[in-house]
Amino acid sequence: MKASTRAAVPPPPPDPFDLSVEAPVPEAVAAMARHVTERFPGTDADIVRRAYRVAEHAHRRQKRASGEPYVTHPVAVAQVLDELGMDPCGLAAALLHDVVEDTAYDQADIERLFGKEVARLVAGVTKISELESLDAERPKEAAEAESLRRLLLAAVNDLRVILIKLADRLHNMETLDALKPERRVRMARETLDYYAPLANRLGIWEFKSRFEDLALKALEPEVYWGIREALAARQVQQDAYLANAIALLDRRLREHGIHAEIKSRAKHIASIYRKMRRKELPAEQIYDVLALRVLVDEVATCYLTLGVVHTLWQPVTGEFDDYVAKRAVS
Ligand code: MN
Question: Which residue in 46, 101, 111, 158 is the catalytic one?
């Protein structure tokens, strides 16, 4: 009787500073730890699990606007960076990125628990957040936004800080629906002003496209969903077309002794919308939604490849651009 009563009382949570206690972590976190062990053999992957436990403890009384436990946010941010191949310290810092700004833990705690490198990364992210909140209150000119982007870049001397901040913004944009309309709009604008151009400049086009699409969804939902629908209607047909085109091109390139990697990509929604406005056409009449990217080793091989491509598919007059020669940037 007594024994069962005692068993019903849950044990106290482990002391967050006693990191020798082996507490279980969610599968998402365990998976990240496994990935870094594979990517960086011989490094301390346990830092990822420990960072999670401290973040979980630090944010334990906080919730996201969606009502979920706050720690789901840093975990999602770290997962994005795990996919990009981030190192153990970078992942730990991602898990801890809101701890100094939003909880009772301070910079010294992070350094004591995780060392200088992680502490420096967290400090960098915190500094950017401070710059942001200083800046959030007033509207700004394009030139000013540009100088702020420079400031952002200058404020950090470690690219990982920017990557964490970009992943942070991405998850915040993905969970925008839980916010009030005014905040949603402000965040979307800010994302277009700073984060999409920053991702573009760093060459992380996947982020840039996602930022632009998520901002469009928040700012002009009818446009966004309209284009999504128009695309969905063509999807199945397009997938089959792409698969055939890749197989055909791959065969021809091999015949010409060209070693290439062929990738397909679908134009993102914001980019389709830009073209619709430029050409004053409905989504149904934007035809270059699909693209193949052929990656080769040498510039000269680009032109050989282009020759092969043009024997398979004739160029449309006025639609061909040589970006190797023109070095254009969008
Ligand atoms: Mn955050």
Answer: 101
